[in-house]
Design goal:
Elements: E1 5-9, H1 17-28, E2 35-39, H2 41-51, H3 56-65, H4 68-72, H5 77-87, H6 95-104, E3 117-123, E4 128-132, H7 137-144, E5 154-156, E6 159-162, H8 172-177, E7 182-186, H9 201-222, E8 229-232, H10 257-274
Parallel strand pairs: 1-2, 1-7, 2-3, 7-8
Antiparallel strand pairs: 3-4, 3-6, 5-6
Helix pairs in contact: 1-3, 1-10, 2-3, 2-7, 6-7
Length: about 280
């Protein structure tokens, strides 16, 4: 069978900066994808990678290093409260992200990308995963990135969509379904740490959602067919402090982005060299 290399990029909000370090390591190690699969922030990374693999790492590093990421969720408290009061469902407009994607992505259709790319979103009406495989890129990435409560659901055709992480946080199974023989898993680092039992009321929902988010990934990993090479790249995250990790609530915190990228690069590069 002809070898087919897939990059699978998971969700994780600001922690998704780890994926840029992993992509950097893969580039330096000479690994190139034949297929790219993404969800949530991984859909944004994946779309840029599939559009122009030669410049993707440089562009993504620049994106995370300047104010572009901050502008997506950059509204002040009063603006967020005003958006919530008007919408009743979300804190931020989706327009800053749409404008950013419009500036970044060319070509504009999924089928015209340099590398085959698919991303997933959760369909509100059917409560099922929907894979975007053809058509305009920007609505697909917006749908896959529409975090409930933060961003509005994205309408595509006659359906509405929320963040793909609700149905596939790290969609390894999709890459296998599409014929990948070697899979590199890029993630936000959460799966490297065990969860801690909640101690406060607001932590219960966080832990419950994280269990659901990880469950499908671990189930898919346990059911992988023989003969498939899967590399879960390390993010190199430091040991977790006691208690529940509240990083997912700090979705506007950008101070650790450079450290996330550098740490993931070093850890992933060491992993790749060991297996060369």
């Amino acid at each position: 069978m002809e070898s087919r290399v897939a990059f699978v990029l998971g969700g994780g909000g600001m922690l998704g900066a780890h994926e840029v370090g992993m992509l950097w390591a893969l580039e330096d190690h000479g690994v190139r994808p034949d297929l790219v699969i993404g969800t949530s922030i991984g859909a944004l990374h994946g779309a840029l990678l599939a559009a122009d693999p030669a410049t993707a790492v440089e562009r993504l590093t620049g994106l995370w290093s300047d104010d572009s990421v901050r502008t997506v969720f950059g509204a002040g408290l009063l603006a967020r409260m005003w958006t919530l009061a008007r919408s009743g469902t979300h804190l931020h407009s989706g327009e800053p992200l749409r404008r950013m994607l419009t500036d970044l992505l060319e070509p504009t259709r999924l089928e015209d990308l340099a590398v085959p790319f698919q991303c997933v979103a959760a369909c509100v009406e059917t409560a099922m995963a929907h894979w975007f495989t053809r058509g305009p890129i920007i609505p697909a990435v917006l749908a896959s990135s529409a975090v409930p409560g933060l961003l509005p659901p994205v309408r595509v055709g006659d359906r509405h969509y929320y963040d793909g992480g609700l149905v596939h946080s790290i969609p390894v199974g999709r890459a296998v379904h599409l014929g990948a023989t070697t899979v590199y898993v890029l993630h936000a680092g959460r799966i490297e740490r065990d969860l801690a039992p909640p101690r406060r009321p607001w932590e219960v929902g966080l832990v419950a959602f994280e269990i659901a988010r990880r469950h499908r990934f671990f189930e898919e990993m346990a059911a992988l067919p023989d003969g498939l090479a899967v590399h879960v790249l390390p993010a190199g995250v430091p040991p977790r402090k006691a208690g529940v990790d509240l990083a997912q609530l700090r979705y506007r915190t950008t101070s650790d982005i450079a450290a996330h990228i550098e740490r993931a690069y070093r850890a992933s590069m060491a992993y790749l060299k060991e297996r060369a």
